């Protein structure tokens, strides 16, 4: 009888351990889409282009951040603003980044309200970006707050 009790206790402990391991792992949640970005000098600032995006992401699920390692500015595009005709463009105004006022203009080439490869945004500072400062642009995915992609440039 001692052998049977020992087996039952072992099976019970194994089942409890299995349940604990499964509950610790849990559901990892949705995977963060990946965006590949490029940036180039624009006439009055910096143009950041989405080279590719791993899945459809509505503009409303994205926050665009600009950081200079001390300060940050952010904008939250809205899908309905960027839906309509081909080459839909929207100005999202300016935010303060230290001593700079930086404005954001977003262009959705397909006008579908979704971030696609080829879509871009332009950051226009007043006064100019400093050549001595490294600026980081980060595309955040709002459902998780995760980083979809980023690029760094100097003024």
Characteristic key phrases:
155 residues, alpha+beta, five-stranded antiparallel β-sheet, 15% helix
Walk me through the structure.
By secondary structure, the protein is an alpha+beta fold. The protein is built from 1 helix and 11 strands; from the N terminus they run αβββββββββββ. It has a 5-stranded antiparallel sheet with strand order 1-2-9-7-6, with no helix packed on it. Strand 10 and strand 11 form a beta hairpin. The longest helix is centred in the first third of the chain and has 24 residues. The radius of gyration is 23 Å and the shape is globular. The model has no long low-confidence stretch (mean pLDDT 88).
Number of strands: 11
Strand content: over 45%
Rounded to an integer, what's the Rg over CA atoms?
Answer: 23 Å
The secondary-structure class comes to alpha+beta
- List low-confidence stretches: none
Order of helices and strands: HEEEEEEEEEEE
Structural shape: globular
Count of helical stretches: 1
Strand order of the largest sheet: 1-2-9-7-6
Distance between the termini: 80 Å
> Percent helix among the residues?
10-25%
Q: Whole-number average pLDDT?
A: 88
Main sheet properties: 5 strands, antiparallel
